[in-house]
Amino acid sequence: MPTASRVIHDEGSLRSRSTEPETALLRSEDREIYSWIAEVAHCSIKEIASGTGRQQQEIEASIARLLRLHLVRADSTSPAHYCAVSPETARVELVGPLRRDIERRHHEVDRISAVLHELTSVYRERTACCAGPATVEVVTSPSQAAELTLQLAASCRSEILLSEPDVSAAVAAMPYFHSGGKSVLSADVVVRTLFPHTARFRRDLTEHMQAQAQRNTSYRTRSDSFMPLTVFDGQVAVFSDHTRSDGIVLVRDSVVVSFAVAAFERAWTRGITFGTSCERQVVDEISESTKRTIVRLMVQGVEDRVIARRLNMSLRSCQRHIEVIMRRLGAKTRMHAGYLVSERGLLKD
User: What is the pLDDT of residues 19-57, one digit of tens each?
Assistant: First the structure.
């Protein structure tokens, strides 16, 4: 179930498959051969091979790349001979059409945006009369979900709240809110991120946190489970779509968003500050927090395997915590442990 962070990671994977610009195909040997052709002015591949000492096959491949970049052209009277073309002329021939295409696309973007902007007020007026949740938008396309999330991040002005209970998904989605290797966030935006305690043992995550130390970012962890959620400026909440594995749900309804913010704040208040160092006192606090959560789930009758899954830890680690808890309580069975916890009021806080 993708949150904003997971969706952005999926979109980043798609973008990484795009082809590189043609200029990246210009190699060192191409520069040497171009220089030689420019000096000689009119030459064949055989003459280039004789002058540069390079193999014919290598020269042919280089000529093909130079032709593609319009840096050489075949002689009109003798196609087996080549002449160098001024880089400025090649730039005009190559960049000119691209620039015109970009201008055309910018014009098209502005035209579409203007039309959609005109309909915004109509949509709001009509949906306000409906009985259903007019401010809920379901997005099923991963690429569209990623683009919408990045747009929300780019337009954010004050704060982003992000809770990610799945450590693997959190690590896979790093860095958050980046496009083309650069952050889309304003320098004034504060980001608060909530992870499970097990995130503290992921080196790749702590390394990312160290790299982001100069930004307005803060992290906390909790032992028990919480909802995957992203809230932008307290106005838009992004949830996972439980009916579609790749979908998200954007909610702009003020009541629902306020509920989401309140849920995050409750979890945040009870979380433990997550820094890049691991002090003994913090480790002990995390361990006790985890045990308290396990006790609560044990009393509720939750099985070991389910507890481990909810706390994002291995079954073996969970069972070690349970052994310590049982020993501390002096309990012989889980039922006996539940009775002792209730009798001593250990869960009142």
Answer: 334 444 678 888 898 988 888 878 888 888 888 888 988
Nearest to 149 by CA among 240, 265, 266, 263: 240
Q: Which of 223, 247, 204, 219 is nearest to 4 (CA)?
A: 247
Q: Are the CB atoms for 154 and 272 separated by under 8 Å?
A: no
Residue 182 has pLDDT above 60, yes or no: yes
CB 183: neighbour CB atoms within 10 A? 16
Q: Which residues pair with 178 in a beta bridge?
A: 183
Given a cut of 90, is residue 233 above it in pLDDT? yes
Q: Name 311's Cβ contacts closer than 8 Å, sequence gap at least 6.
A: 196, 197, 198, 223, 224, 225, 290, 293, 294, 318
3-state class of 114 per DSSP?
helix
203 — phi, psi (to 5°)?
A: -65, -40
Return the percent helix, strand and coil in the chain, to nearest 5.
55, 15, 30
- pLDDT, tens digit, for every residue of 141-159? 888 888 888 888 888 999 9
Q: What's the burial of 134, exposed, middle or buried (CB within 10 Å: 0-12/13-18/19+)?
A: middle
Q: Which residue's structure tokens are 């995130």?
A: 199
Q: Which residues contact 314 (CB under 8 A, 6 or more apart)?
A: 308
Phi, psi of 299 (to 5 degrees): -60, -30
What local confidence, expressed as pLDDT, does residue 14 receive?
38
pLDDT, averaged across the chain: 79
Contact 335, 250 (CB under 8 A): no
Contact between 304 and 322 under an 8 Å Cβ cutoff? The reply is yes
Asked whether residue 17 carries a pLDDT value surpassing 50, the answer given is no
> What's the confidence (pLDDT) of residue 159?
93
The dihedral through the CA atoms of 274, 278, 279, 282 has a sign that is positive
**What CA–CA distance (Å, rounded) separates 66 from 43?**
14
